[in-house]
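Summary for the lay section of the report: proteins are chains of building blocks that fold into shapes. Here we show the chain for MBOAT family O-acyltransferase and then a coded description of the shape we predicted for it.
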Amino acid sequence: MLFHTPEFMVLMIITMFLYYLLPNRRIFLLSVANVIFYGVAGIGHLFVFIAVSIFTYYCSKMLRGKYAKLILAIALVVNILNLVFFKYTVFLIRSMEQFLSVKLLTEDSFWLTIVLPIGISFYTFQMIAYVVDIYKGKIKPSRTLLDFWVFIAFFANLIAGPIMRGQELLPQIEGIRSIRFDRRNMRIGAAFLGLGLFKKIVLADYISGYADSFFARTAELTGAEGWVAIYLFAFQIFFDFAAYSEMAVGIGYFFGIKLINNFQTPYLSSNATEFWRRWHITLSTFIRDYIYIPLGGSRNGKVRQYINLFLAMTISGIWHGAAWTFVIWGMFHGALLIGHKLYSKGKERLGLAKLDSSKIYHVFAVIVFFHLTCIGWIFFRVDGFQNAISLLSRMLTPEAFLFPKELHKYLLLVAVLYLLHIVEYYLFANAAKWSKAWHNRFPAPVRAVVYTLVIAVLALLLRTEQNTFIYFQF
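The coded shape description reads as follows.
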């Protein structure tokens, strides 16, 4: 069930109406809504999700005492095996086939019938963080199974995040009866939901037509066409993923629940470190806290720190998809993070640290890093390592930057999209000031007319054919 469909809107509105009408039944209402929302995707996958959730919940209750470490290991293994079974089995078998030069899968093989449950990567990471935090004493186990189910399966963020920690969401779930209807929350929720719908339906789905037409003939693309294609995909995946996250935040506000905004204009980043503080924020902090730091972080010298960074980002790549191109994408970003640290250290030694305060240098760094990010997206978008390398080699020739006239309209589109990215930065940076001005300078009737027009436009957009979200496949 997609957020930008009439069916979801009906489910959300009915649930929200009953939620405020029956405050003592909120946990039960959200539990049922979660089941309906996920069950639409497949009853079998719903049962698997419920079973793993129940198992994790009861494990979390035993993470104290003599056998705590063993229970933690069992909980982690079960969650990871569930993810591996559905997401990586075929990939692992195919890799063995290539390595051993033998045929292991036939066309009627059982393994080829496995369908990836939507949201499995996200709810698995959320459950891993939950049991680890309990084991470390950062949080207490959920009081009841229903509380835990609402925490782990809240339909706003279930499918594609944000990945919420126990300390961020559980206290809100456990205090859900005390939440009161708040007009401000409704306004903020509507703003986030409207922004997400605009990004998805108007921007991401529009861009996808152009991007897909280029990548449908990847082997034939010139270097210049390759750059245009990957520019378009960079904004397609951003607007698509940010749209889901912002709609999730908006839906959370409707229920008085605060979710983390996952994106902060990432293409304005001037280096890899900044990018991962702006892109998919809850995943990057998960990778830092549950993979990078347990590997040793920066505690054992620079060389070990760089190795840990590289390994953590490689795992991030594997999490994104069951293909070697995703592994390469993760390794590429690991190399960018290491490169940034080495570059920063070199600047300090050469007395060039003052460059960071130069606006011209900052703009130059943003442009360079945007192109590095686009190079990484090649491995994310193109099927097959050889195809990705072949396209990249054509894009890195001098003539690739001599764009013919027929590509100028696409470059203009990319420029407009980047301008929108900059506008979004200033919108969020000045949101409080502009919101105050909007309410002070325009009377309620005028605001009501504008809100009605926005709702009408969004309702019309919801009637159009809907594309699924890119990150649903992860």
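Put simply, here is one thing we learned. DSSP finds 18 helices and no strands in the chain.
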